[in-house]
Specification:
heterodimer; A: mainly alpha; 2 domains; 10 helices; 70% helix; 1% strand; B: mainly alpha; 76% helix; elongated; transmembrane (chain B); GatZ_KbaZ_carbometab (chain B); PTS_IIC_man (chain B); cell membrane (chain B)
Chain lengths: 276, 260
């Protein structure tokens, strides 16, 4: 399939480039923000690849815009997606009519499940093991406690980061070559949109929370507006709220304005008690 | 004064874990130890760090949830406990409320200040100025969060624990509650932006499928992705078969069905 010492035949991307991206991915949570989460770090990490593949400002602008979209996953595993994005950008750079929307669709489809695995493995398992070892020593005031804590966590976690960068790229490149040969690119784009939207739907249900605890009726009959909504369909309020935001964005409302409105709504909701 | 500056630097180093691979420098175990080193009582720092680590065990970011700001809580809690000669209880009693208070600042920054850097980065990206994008990332993290935490820790230590206690008592409960509620609303922006990007009439129903699978059946996102992948594959197969059927219409009908 692939020769052992080059990452991919006839590829512009070298191992060194991949490691550069992995190194930049270390700052995956540095400019984390509530608007698009880890979008700026993701774009930052991919810039060496973008610069290498595209030579005009217009092409670079397009690529950077793509990767400034919403992103979030367990930071140590983000390189798997960076690797896949690298392979897809390379495909886009070499192929005339590559559908660029598939680059983001694939990224979106995979980031949720990857976070699911990553959060339980990195935060739930590795961190707990490291903390257990660290605390047992630190309780007696032994400075080896914090040192071992850092080593036990970081050697596997950061090792994984570099490994996944290469694995993601290889996986993406192999997969794309196959797809290209069989002429299934259109199907890939469609399939990725289906999968991506289902994941976004699930993540919306898990992450957006809003409840209206205003009581209606009295005594045993008492119920709240939130309960009534959940009776119609669980999660109706978060769903409706997300769509309001979606339509505001469609109407070209600035995200800053929406952020401010949300803060006002949250504070007023707490003060007057109509949200809870 | 010197100690206040050093502690500010310790806090900034802790927050810099987000620049250095989310390597857990910010955990109480490490922050407590470094605070102990600055104040000349290493073993006390390590011990208090271990105590606070246990208290903050459940505090780590999953998805879009941000844990209490442990750095300021640990550094100040440990520092006040060491300088006043009180024990772990004092470190906890001050550390926990400080952590929730500073979280408010951190959240405000991630809601208002950091998005400004992101918008500026959008502008640079639109003209292909990659250096500008890089600069927004690096400066955003520094001015948006890192420096703020450093200043809060340095100034608070300089003012001393009675003043800080006074400030903690002044924050009304509804402000904290209100910000908590806001955090629940904010992810809608990210998802709204994503929907704008991929949603069209042909695939819109799948958003609702994912949502309903989560709310009705309580399937976690990984499970939804598995079902989603299967649905996507099946649909692609059907689409291609239809295409294939049209192309070879009347030639070899029925053959494919045997595979089922």
């Amino acid at each position: 399939m692939m020769t052992s010492n080059t990452v991919k035949e006839n590829s512009m991307i070298t191992k060194k480039d991949l490691n550069k991206v992995a190194l930049r991915s270390l700052s995956m949570e540095w400019s984390w923000n509530y608007e698009r989460q880890a979008n700026l770090p993701y774009c930052y990490a991919l810039i060496p690849i973008i610069n290498k593949l595209y030579k005009t400002d217009e092409e670079r602008a397009e690529a950077m815009k793509r990767h400034l979209e919403f992103f979030n996953t367990t930071p140590h595993l983000s390189t798997l997606l960076l690797g896949i994005s690298t392979a897809m950008e390379e495909q886009n750079a070499t192929e005339e009519n590559f559908d660029t929307s598939s680059i983001n669709n694939i990224k979106i489809a995979l980031m949720g499940p990857l976070a699911g695995i990553g959060d339980s493995f990195i935060w739930g398992t590795l961190r707990i093991i490291a903390t257990g070892i660290g605390i047992s020593l630190a309780r007696q005031g032994n400075i080896l406690g914090p040192i071992l804590f850092l080593l036990v966590f970081n050697i596997p976690a950061q090792g994984l980061r570099f490994f996944l960068m290469n694995a993601g790229y290889k996986l993406g490149a192999e997969f794309l070559t196959k797809i290209e040969k069989s002429g299934l690119m259109e199907s890939l784009t469609y399939g990725a949109a289906v999968l991506g939207l289902m994941v976004i739907g699930g993540m919306t249900a898990e992450n957006v929370s809003i409840n209206i605890p205003i009581a209606i009726g009295s005594g045993d009959e008492a119920t709240t507006i939130g309960d009534i909504c959940n009776g119609i369909m669980p999660g109706l309020l978060p769903l409706a709220f997300t769509f309001v935001v979606f339509f505001l964005l469609r109407k070209n409302f600035k995200t800053t304005t929406i952020l401010l409105l949300m803060a006002v709504l949250g504070l007023a909701g707490a003060f007057f008690g109509f949200l809870g | 004064m010197l100690q206040a500056i050093l502690l500010a630097l310790v806090a900034m180093l802790g927050n810099a874990e987000y620049l250095f691979g989310t390597c857990l420098l910010s955990r109480p175990l490490v922050m407590g130890t470094l605070t102990g080193i600055v104040l000349g009582d290493i073993s006390m720092g390590v011990t208090l760090g271990a105590t606070l680590e246990l208290a903050f065990m459940g505090a780590f970011s999953v998805g879009a949830s941000i844990p209490p700001e442990m750095i300021s809580g640990t550094v100040l809690g440990t520092a006040f406990a060491i300088t006043t000669g009180t024990g772990a209880e004092a470190a906890l009693a001050l550390g926990l409320p400080i952590a929730s208070l500073v979280l408010i600042f951190k959240n405000l920054s991630m809601v208002f200040i950091l998005p400004m850097f992101v918008h500026k980065a959008d502008k640079y990206a639109a003209v292909g100025n990659y250096k500008g994008v890089e600069r927004m990332h690096l400066l955003g993290g520094f001015f948006g969060v890192n420096l703020i935490i450093g200043v809060i820790v340095g100034v608070s230590f300089y003012l001393g624990s009675p003043v800080i206690q006074g400030i903690l008592d002044m924050i009304p409960a509804w402000v904290q509650k209100g910000l908590e509620l806001t955090m629940g609303l904010l992810p809608a922006i990210g998802f709204g932006l994503l929907m704008q990007m991929i949603m069209n009439k042909n695939v819109a129903c799948f958003f609702f499928l994912g949502f309903a699978l989560s709310t009705y059946l309580k399937i976690p996102v990984t499970g939804i992705a598995i079902f989603g992948a299967i649905v996507a594959i099946v649909l692609v197969q059907i689409k291609n078969q239809n295409k294939h059927a049209v192309e070879t219409a009347g030639v070899s009908e029925g053959d494919e069905d045997d595979d089922f």
